[in-house]
Design brief:
The chain has 106 residues and is an alpha/beta fold. The chain has six helices and four strands. It folds into two domains: 47 residues, no CATH class; 53 residues, no CATH class. 50% of the residues lie in helices and 13% in strands.
């Protein structure tokens, strides 16, 4: 019987973090192959909501995604991470800005 594993969002994020990527990716591959069983909760789905915004905007090929969420979205380090994933998956880079940066003050 496959081992049931509850993974929080840090494990998903770990796939894109140099320090944790190797083992996080191996774990995810185990889930995909069915060797391990991923147990999810509604909390994890809620915490992944920011990532869903990025994914939807990327697939929609928008010109700019705007947000006031400085912790998870409008954050230079995270933007580099999002664009790294996008490029590896064959998507264009995404511009992420605040509404203040997009609107003209004229």
């Amino acid at each position: 019987m496959a081992t049931r594993i509850y993974a929080d969002t840090s494990v998903v994020g770990g796939c894109e973090d140099e320090e944790f990527a190797e083992r996080s990716v191996r774990l995810m591959e185990g889930f995909v192959r069915g060797e391990l069983i991923l147990v999810l909760s509604s909390l994890m789905v809620q915490e992944l909501a920011d990532a869903r915004h990025i994914a939807i905007a990327t697939i929609g090929r928008v010109d700019v995604l705007v947000s006031w969420n400085f912790k998870h979205i409008v954050n230079l380090q995270r933007i580099h991470g999002y664009n790294s994933v996008n490029l590896r998956q064959g998507y264009p880079m995404i511009e992420i800005r605040t509404p203040r940066e997009v609107l003209s003050d004229e």
